[in-house]
Amino acid sequence: MKKFTFRGGVRPYEGKDLTAKAPVRALEPGRELAFLLSQHIGSPAVPVVKKGERVLAGQLLGEAGGFVSAHVFSSVSGTVKGIEKRRTARGDLSDAVIVENDFKYETAPIDPLPGMEEYCRVYGRPPGGGWYGPQDLGTRDAQAVLDAIRPDQILADMAPSQVLDRIRAAGLVGMGGAGFPTHVKLSPSDPEKIDYVLINGCECEPFVTCDHRLLCERPGELIAGLKAVLKLFGNVQGVFCVEDNKPDAIEILKKALRREETIYVAPCRTKYPEGAERSLIKAITARDVNSKMLPADAGCIVVNVSSAYAIFEAVFLGKPDYERLVTVAGDAIASPGNYLVPNGMYYREIIHQAGGFTQMPEKLISGGPMMGFAQADMEGVSTKTSSAITALCYDVVSREPETPCINCGRCADACPARLVPSHLASMVEKHRLEQFEENYGMECINCGSCSWSCPARRPLAALIFQGRQTLLAQKRKARK
Predict the structure, then answer these.
(1) 397, 419, 445: which is the final residue of a domain?
(2) Element (DSSP H or E) covering residue 428
(3) What pLDDT is recorded for position 86?
(4) Tens digits of per-residue pLDDT, 7-35?
(5) CATH number for the domain including 338?
(6) Is residue 463 part of a domain?
(7) What letters, b where the CB count within 10 A reaches 16 and e where it falls short, cover 4-36?
(8) Residue 125 pLDDT > 70, yes or no?
(9) Which carries the bigger pLDDT value, residue 50 or residue 1?
(10) Is residue 206 within 8 Å of 368, Cβ to Cβ?
């Protein structure tokens, strides 16, 4: 069997055995939740509620602040305490709507499509949300789910604009980490040029397994979500891209897709960063995407697995995006696993319900260890893009001293963008940003493969990121 891959990359310790087969559990939100109005790329959402107002789960809190923006919804019922500043995972401040939970979990009405009655009856969510209720235990049979949904029949009666409107109304964003508004991604300038829709199930980030669990437990819903995306374009192929360290997910999807002619599974070689958008497009289609292009310019739309599930819920059920699956892992976590987490929940409460710490971690990361963001405390809040919380007993990076570069070339071998990271990092250190740009420093995808492979333990990725951000800031200033 052919396994798709790309040039470069590294093979760090995966750590997925901690959570890959752990049963999913829905978490109980705490007394206070904070809903960031900047959970996405683009303009922040504009608050539409006031202090003292009572809200329901699934009710709009913030309205999209422009085309490149997204709505923000409450995940609980309760009372608005006000709008305050909270830190994002990256460390900057954002306005947030603070809601005091009343623990009643009253939900705003949703709008399922006609024909979804059978699915809602058999697989309906229990009161108060959560995946697991009396009729909803563990893995579902994909064919039974598809027979209940009948996506081809339902979507045949819908115009593409209706599908896009329901995605926009649900406030969907890319849930793999970037947070790009989904309705913008699915509105390319020339839809006729799109011939691939890639469902990114590689999940190459160490420790993270939330997409793996979705692939295994909700394959029918994911296929329906993909078909909703295919409805927006013409003659396109749908591809589930899954690394070969998830053989159970590959077999489940192959069985579920045996009747499909335009959707198939592409097993990918397990290698980091296979799941990076440019790397995945190169692996599957052999097409190149650079920093001045969008995936749509190469005829591709890339959708994360969690985003595909959210698309299913938005299009077929009319459910807003206010909760997601989050992996809580690392050797400092007492009960590593995948948890259904309401947006707005504080990290400290998520970790507490995951059993707390076995010992106080030296490093706490929002996301995974390769591309996540180190946290100064546990006051961060879960958002649409919060795929994982990783707690590590030892901060190996800070324990190993940096030494001079030995010009071994390992960083260049590892770089999927075919750059020379050691030289780019030196240019940033010496403030030679023009030279940095001339040597294609803006093509870096910030995957961290160079830092991981460097025997001198130089912070190559951090330096290159600093150079890119400085250049972008200078260009923004020049435009103004």
Answers:
(1) 397
(2) helix 421-429
(3) 94
(4) 999 999 999 999 998 878 889 899 999 99
(5) 3.10.20.600
(6) yes
(7) bbbebbbebebbbebbbebebbbbebbebbbbb
(8) no
(9) 50
(10) yes
User: pLDDT by residue (tens digit) across 315-334?
Assistant: 999 999 999 999 999 999 99
Residues 429 and 393 in one domain: no
In a domain, 370, yes or no: yes
Residues of the chain by 3-state class (helix, strand, coil), percent to 5: 30, 20, 45
- Cβ proximity of 289 and 295 under 8 Å: yes
Closest CA to 203 of 250, 135, 256, 237: 250
Question: Are residues 143 and 288 part of one domain?
Answer: yes
Buried b (16+ CB within 10 A) or exposed e, 208-247: bbbbbbbbbbbbbbbbbbbbbbbbbbeebebbbbbbbbbe
Rounded to the nearest integer, the mean pLDDT of the chain is 92
Question: What is the Cα–Cα distance from 363 to 336, expressed in whole angstroms?
Answer: 16
Residue 58 lies in a domain: yes
Nearest to 447, CA basis, from 216, 231, 247, 273: 273
Residue closest to 445 by CA, chosen among 303, 199, 280: 280
> Rounded to whole angstroms, how far apart are CA atoms 331 and 390?
9
Amino acid at 133: G
In angstroms, what CA-CA distances link 428 with 193, 397, 419, 436? 38, 21, 14, 7
Domain that includes residue 263, residue range: 16-22+109-317
CA distance 332 to 27: 19
Nearest to 29 by CA among 2, 50, 57, 5: 57
Q: How does pLDDT run across 242-264, given as a tens digit for each residue?
A: 999 999 999 999 999 998 999 99
Read off the pLDDT of each residue in 95-119 and give the average, rounded to a whole number. Answer: 91
Lowest mean pLDDT among 137-151, 175-189, 283-297: 137-151
| Bridge partners, residue 241, by sequence | 200, 266
427-465 pLDDT, tens digit each: 999 999 999 999 999 999 999 999 999 999 999 999 999
Other beta carbons within 10 angstroms of residue 451's beta carbon come to 22
Taking every pair of Cα atoms in the chain, the longest distance, rounded to a whole number of angstroms, is 65
The Cβ of residue 124 has, within 10 Å, a number of other Cβ atoms equal to 13
CATH number at residue 115: 3.40.50.11540
End-to-end alpha carbon distance in the chain: 53
